[in-house]
Amino acid sequence: MQYQKRKRIYQSLVASVMVLCLAVLGFAVWLLFVPNAHNRPVVQTQTDIEEASGTATLPVETTANQFAAVLTGNTTQLAGAADETWTSSDETIAQVDENGVVTGLQPGRCTITGDKGDVYQVAVRHLEQRDGCTYVDDILIVNKTYSLPETYDPGLEPVAEGAFTQLQAAAAAEGLDLYIGSDYRDYAYQVKIYQNYCDLYGWEEADTFSARPGHSEHQSGLTIDCNTIDDAFGETPEAAWLAQHCAAYGFIIRFPLGKEHITGYQYEPWHIRYVGSAVAQEIQQYDLTLEEYLGVTSAYTEPWQG
Ligand SMILES: [Zn+2]
Q1: Do 243 and 152 fall within a single domain?
Q2: Exposure string over 233-259, b if 16+ CB within 10 A, otherwise e
Q3: How far away, in angstroms, is 224 Cα from ligand 1 center?
Q4: Is the pLDDT of residue 120 over 90?
Q5: Ligand 1 centroid vs 268 CA: distance in angstroms?
Q6: What's the confidence (pLDDT) of residue 200?
């Protein structure tokens, strides 16, 4: 009896050690073979974004380290595409070819993964025109490609005004003074501003910093210029705070430094656009412009005929 008991204890001890060894071995194998994306950033989960913003519009939790957007029926080229082989997580939403060219098939989200660790969060967008305004996934887009009708006259939108009031209070709590330097402008006012710059600098120069009538985001009622419209604003603590915190209140720095070739405009640290906090935080997370986020261009097709 005593021997049988010892034998059972011994057997169960051996079994436990074996299970432990297998677990350690399994973990080692997992460590070896798990795809190790280079520069994988800390990415907010969907839940984080929802909690921060109080909205729930972003469907995919992802470890993507890059972002690409494309309109339905359009294509876009992924960066670094030449030396990677790409796979789409959902070929009914977006397909990708051997050159990293992505085709948007229907609105939605998927991930496109390269064999060298690049992971793209891909958004396929729906562009729609309503009453002369252009919406991409229901976000109003106003830039050099897309204009507003002359009659569009919303004033400063309450949602943007309310969000700015909160932003302003948060800045004030840290001893910083952010205020509205300029907000809504109507078509007629934009005619005067743009024509004045054309008279001073010529239209080609004016186009780099002033919008043609109908193309100014200030006409959308969703845009605010903070404080003084001056390059010196970019050097103030207010500007640094604004860049860091505006997304939490639903705003983006609309014309960032280094993205002039995408937005079509010089860097404007004072010009913020309301898009809602979920969208703003995703734009900030991936360091995008609104054009990149929506998968659209910003370019005039004609010289100014003013
Ligand atoms: Zn502005």
Answers
A1: yes
A2: bbebebbebbbebbbbbbbbbbbbeeb
A3: 6
A4: yes
A5: 7
A6: 97
Question: Are 194 and 262 part of one and the same domain?
Answer: yes
Count the domains in the chain. 2
The pLDDT tens digits for 249-296 are 999 999 999 999 999 999 999 999 999 999 999 999 999 999 999 999
d(CA 169, ligand 1 centre) in Å:
21
Q: What share of the chain is helix, strand, coil (3-state, %, to 5)?
A: 40, 20, 40
Distance between Cα 130 and ligand 1 center (Å)? 24
CA angle 212, 216, 218 (to 5 degrees): 150
Which residue segment(s) compose the domain that 62 sits in? 46-125
**Whether 223 contacts 274, CB under 8 Å:** yes
> What is the distance between the alpha carbons of residues 261 and 297, in angstroms, rounded to a whole number?
10
Centroid of ligand 1 to alpha carbon of 161 (angstroms): 15
Reported confidence tier of residue 13, pLDDT bands at 50, 70, 90: low
- CA of 184 from ligand 1 middle (Å) equals 9
The answer on 286 and 156 residing in a single domain is yes
| Residue 11 within any structural domain of the chain | no
Q: Are residues 113 and 160 in the same domain?
A: no
Same domain, 116 and 230: no
User: Which DSSP category does 210 fall into?
Assistant: S
- Ligand 1 centroid from CA 209, angstroms: 9
- Tens-digit pLDDT profile for residues 171-201: 999 999 999 999 999 999 999 999 999 999 9
Of the chain, the percentage scoring pLDDT greater than 70 comes to 80
Instruction: Write down which residue in 102, 125, 148 finishes a domain.
Output: 125
What are phi and psi for residue 228, nearest 5 degrees?
Answer: -90, 135
Q: Cα 57 from chain centroid?
A: 13
Q: Are residues 121 and 131 in the same domain?
A: no
In-domain check, residue 212: yes
Same domain, 136 and 121: no
